[in-house]
Specification:
This protein has 147 residues and is an alpha+beta fold. It has a domain of 101 residues: 2-Layer Sandwich (Alpha-Beta Plaits). 42% of the residues lie in helices and 19% in strands. It is globular and about 35 Å long. The structure holds adenosine-3',5'-cyclic-monophosphate. Belongs to the NDK family.
Length: 147
Amino acid sequence: EKEKTLAIIKPDGLYGNYTENIKKAILDSGFTILKEMTIQLDDDAAMGFYAEHSSKGFFSSLVKYMTSGPVLIMVLEKENAVADWRTLIGPTDASTAKITHPHSIRAMCGMTLEKNCVHGSDSFQSAEREIAFFFDEKSSDRVVIGH
Ligand code: CMP
């Protein structure tokens, strides 16, 4: 059964020109990129997307980071997409990833716990909510790359 997940290349990932390498890793791992768009998040969008973290001490810093430049948002599809994309990106803390998961995407392009260059939905329920946050089900903003 195919499953969808939401991937985001964060501002540091775009700014560091990691997009090509990240997309290659995505396609080499058997995902289909169903939709993609590059957008500049404003404060409201970043705060809405990360609402579950609004009480955390790092929230304002996270919003500042996520609005510091454009992001590339993608809907990925394959069997077991949510878990497999989380595995491919590696641990949240990119400095840990460089040691424990050196072949992960965060080891390649991330820097720290906050500046970890990519996002992945943490569950099937999160994926449904996050995809609906950015993409209109009926819209034709549709590209299909790979598989
Ligand atoms: P992400 O997987 O997109 O989910 C929430 C983001 O908040 C996370 O990646 C990091 O960018 C950031 N984050 C998570 N935990 C912390 C933390 N303890 N300190 C600073 N930033 C964090």
